[in-house]
Amino acid sequence: AIITYLPWLVVAFLTWTATRMSWRELAFVALMVVAVDGLKPQPAYTLPQPFLRTFGETDAPEAFLRFCEVQITECEPQNIGASLPDDWLDDLETVNTGVNHAIRSGDDVTLYGRAEWWAIPLDGAGDCEDFALLKRRMLMNLGWPSSALLIATTWNHAVLIARTPLGDLILDNVTSDIAIWHRTPYRILMIQSPRD
């Protein structure tokens, strides 16, 4: 940082030698140079992109593939070509809050007798991916295209991502607050393709 101010400090030193300022006056001039230099426009902060970027394709989680074998219609593209409903934000808030309050959290071993089993939680309990699947189904029933409702996984967690004009919004079973993806504590590892 001192290199940034070096030309100004040289000018201050030369001024000191020419005018015989005291060291105290020189220090004051140097501090003023640093303070004024800090007022210069700084590079603008680059905001994160509103939509998640993907870096190639990967296989779907095994549990999702098993879910699709059992619930074939849940995994077929739905409402193809449909645009988002006019009240899309109300839909998201209603569905996210409703599901979070109606379904109690439970683990797959307790609920289904096996580890990592994805299902629509019809019995009032489920884990994170079950919440996401139910929210996805409910939003598609409201006319949302399946291409705008993507299941995403993080480390040991799953959420539903809604592609909206504002960007990718995360619907989570941990909170009823809906947030743009980069304002959440999650690092998305995998996201469902909008084409599938």
Please give a structural write-up:
By secondary structure, the chain is of the alpha+beta class. 41% of the residues lie in helices and 14% in strands. The chain has seven helices and seven strands; from the N terminus they run αααααβαβαβββββ. The protein has helices at 2-19, 23-37, 62-70, 72-75, 88-102, 108-112, 128-141, and strands at 104-105, 125-126, 149-154, 157-164, 167-171, 179-180, 190-191. The strands form two sheets. Strands 6-5-4-3-7 form a five-stranded antiparallel sheet, with helices on one face. A two-stranded parallel ribbon has the order 1-2. Helix 1 (2-19) runs antiparallel to helix 2 (23-37) and helix 5 (88-102) packs across helix 7. The longest helix is centred in the first third of the chain and has 18 residues, at 2-19. The radius of gyration is 27 Å and the shape is elongated.
Quick overview:
With 196 residues, this protein is of the alpha+beta class. The chain has helices at 2-19, 23-37, 62-70, 72-75, 88-102, 108-112, 128-141, and strands spanning 104-105, 125-126, 149-154, 157-164, 167-171, 179-180, 190-191.
Distance between the termini: 51 Å
Q: Which overall shape is indicated by the principal axes computed on the Cα atoms?
A: elongated
* Structural class by secondary-structure content: alpha+beta
Strand content: 5-15%
